[in-house]
Design brief:
The protein is α+β, with helices and mostly antiparallel strands and 207 residues long. The chain has a single domain, classed as outer membrane lipoprotein receptor (LolB), chain A, CATH 2.50.20. The chain contains four helices and twelve strands, in the order αβαββββββαββαβββ. It starts with a helix and ends in an 11-residue tail after the last strand. It comes from Paenimyroides baculatum. Keywords: Lipoprotein, Signal.
Amino acid sequence: MKNIFLGILFFTCSLAFSQTQMSASEVSTFKKEIANQADKTTSITADFEETKHVSVLKNASKSSGILRFKGEKLLWQYNAPKKNAMLFNKDNLKIKNEKGKITSIDLNKNKRFKQLQQLMVGSYTGNLFDEKSFNITYFKNGATRFALLKPKSKDMSKHIKEVTLTFLNNEDTVSEIKIVESSNDYSLIKLKNKKLNTALGDSVFQL
């Protein structure tokens, strides 16, 4: 039993320390690769799975849906277990609830949703390495790379503690996003079936 325990402990410690911080030259190369990909990306389509962990709930909640991104438009649509959606378009946000009611929000008058827009759009393009707004640390584990972002502003810190962007298999677009709230509750979003630069008409961005 002791040997089994030590084996588990060693395995756990190995996982914990398998992530190493990137060197300055590695960070520079990584950022250039991400920026180059962002410049070439005109649209993104993907399926997503979101798992939300809330401390007061015994089990995590799971949801899934589709993501569509083009220019200044970002559609984040949940299909299960309930249907609702968020559509960001320049300085406007429209939210459609499960009953079909649509609410419109002026992002210039709502800092929290404006920050959410910047976070979401930046996450999917990979163009989120704004060191004026975030303290950023970069890590690697084999072919997987991570960017850990901690907001500098007090306004954003009230809602978001940190964000981890994961780039799998040396890809230059985000595959996983972990958002930790100030309460330590967190959401893990996994993007699947990603497609870049596909033709997306305006009808795709209708609620």
